[in-house]
Structures are given as C-alpha cells and as structure tokens.
C-alpha cells in the first residue's frame, strides 16, 4: 500500500509558540488511521493543516502524491479530502435531505447554490435518499436539521461528507458527547464509510480507536510520541505515561 496522505517535517507556530514540531506522518490508502493523545497534543492543529484550514510554518504536505502544502481548503477538497467537524456545522432551517442534496450538487458545475429549480432538486433526490438510508436518517429526511438530536446531527454531517465522495475522510472526534448507543451506531457508520476510502480520525475514546483503527499515531506536546497498531500503542510505556501524566495533572 502507498501513502495517500504524507507529511514531512510539518511544523506550525503561533506567535512563537510551536504547536506542532516537525511531524512526519504517512497514512496508507484504504486504512483507518487514528490520531490520539492528551489534550493539547497538537491533534487538531495537525488536522487543520491536513485540510488546509491552516498553512504550515515549515514542512511539506502531500495528498495522493501531489504537493498540497499551504493550499486553501477548497483546493485541498478538490484533491479528494472531506472533513467532518467536531462541532456540527449545519444549517438549522434546511431539511436533512436538502443538506445532502447541496453537498451532491457541490460536486457539479452548480456548486453550492441554495436557489435551485425543481428539476435540479430531482436530479440529486435519489442519491441523497440513498445516503440518508445509509446513515439511518431516511425517516427524518424532511425534518429541519436543527430539530435533530446530537447523535443524528453527527450522522447527517457524515452523510454530507460522504456526498462529496472523498478519497480521504477526516473525522474530528466523531463520537464526542455521545451515549453508548449512539457511539455503537457511529462506529458502525464509520466502518461502513471507510469501505473503499481512507479515514483519518481524532478520537479520545480508546475503545472506539481499538474498534476502528488499522494504525494509531500518538501525539504529545506537538510531537509524534509513538506509532503502530492499536495493541502495540496501547501497551507502550510512553503512551501510558503520557495519559497518566495528564490525569495526575488534572487531579493533583
């Protein structure tokens, strides 16, 4: 397998504070790759660099073998990268189905146009309904997104990302704030979404990481601490110390 996402010496500074220290990362195509680590480890900064929300201070980012260093988000998206956010970014008044239709439309020459003819709407209806069925939202297709429970909003967010048909799907804490039932449902959805594509996720729930990830990169203070399979990483003394250190810091 070859790396579909790769970084070389990726570094990010904010007014002299180094948030990410010369990170080398390789994500193999067709895998689920988890980024984990204590709070403040640099996971979200790395994610923002991967999707173009931030430009690196130094280093290089490659996506599918192409130099993506410093590209803005819309150009990174054209390389096949879609991101689902930690905080849901939906339009409360638009229906569940309209969200997915808009995302499907975005991949055409129509782009993100909110005003569409009935003919244009019907063009995307069947595919939108198929994606909603895939994430278990068929029954609420006409409901406004703002009326959805938290777990269902995350499912809609995933459907919107899948509508963009990405080669690489970035998921930022997909199970954050969920109860056990929603977590199980989300893990199943992510596993399904990973079929035929690459998934990179930030996740604090190590049970979820163990269920999904082929490979795990542990960050600490902006550096790669250790990388490997889940069982290997879980038992590494450096990882145990990193998490215990954080726990002791919070509970002196």
Low-confidence parts: 246-252
SS-based structural class? Answer: alpha/beta
For the secondary structure, the number of strands is 10
DSSP helical segment count: 9
Can you tell me the CATH superfamily of the largest domain?
Answer: P-loop containing nucleotide triphosphate hydrolases
CATH topology of the largest domain: Rossmann fold
- The amount of beta strand, in percent, is 25-35%
Classify the helix fraction into a percent range.
25-40%
Query: Strands across the major sheet, in which order?
Result: 6-7-8-3-9-10
What's the CATH C level of the largest domain?
Alpha Beta
Shape: globular
Sheet bearing the most strands, described? Answer: 6 strands, mixed
Tell me which oligomeric state these chains represent: single chain
CATH architecture of the largest domain: 3-Layer(aba) Sandwich
What's the end-to-end separation, in Å?
45 Å
**Average pLDDT rating:** 87
Write down the secondary-structure element order: EEEHEEHEHHHEHEHEEHH
Number of domains: 2
């Amino acid at each position: 397998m070859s790396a579909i996402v790769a970084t070389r010496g990726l570094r990010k500074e904010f007014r002299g504070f180094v948030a990410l220290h010369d990170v080398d990362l390789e994500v193999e195509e067709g895998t689920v790759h988890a980024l984990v680590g204590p709070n403040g480890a640099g996971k979200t900064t790395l994610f923002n660099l991967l999707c173009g929300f931030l430009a690196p201070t130094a280093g290089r980012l490659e996506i599918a073998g192409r130099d993506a260093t410093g590209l803005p988000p819309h150009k990174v998206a054209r390389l096949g990268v879609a991101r689902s956010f930690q905080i849901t970014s939906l339009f409360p008044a638009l229906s569940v189905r309209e969200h997915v239709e808009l995302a499907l439309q975005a991949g055409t020459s129509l782009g993100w146009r909110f005003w569409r003819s009935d003919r244009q709407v019907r063009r995307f209806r069947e595919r939108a309904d198929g994606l909603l069925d895939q994430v278990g939202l068929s029954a609420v297709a006409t409901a406004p997104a703002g009326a959805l429970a938290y777990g269902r909003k995350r499912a809609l967010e995933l459907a919107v990302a899948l509508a963009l048909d990405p080669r690489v799907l970035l998921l930022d804490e997909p199970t954050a704030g969920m109860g056990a039932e929603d977590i199980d449902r989300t893990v199943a959805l992510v596993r399904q979404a990973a079929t035929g594509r690459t998934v990179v996720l930030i996740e604090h729930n190590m049970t979820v990481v163990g269920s999904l990830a082929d490979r795990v990169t542990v960050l600490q203070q902006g550096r790669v601490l250790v990388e490997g399979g889940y069982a290997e990483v879980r038992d590494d003394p450096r990882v145990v110390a990193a998490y215990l250190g954080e726990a002791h810091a919070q509970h002196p």
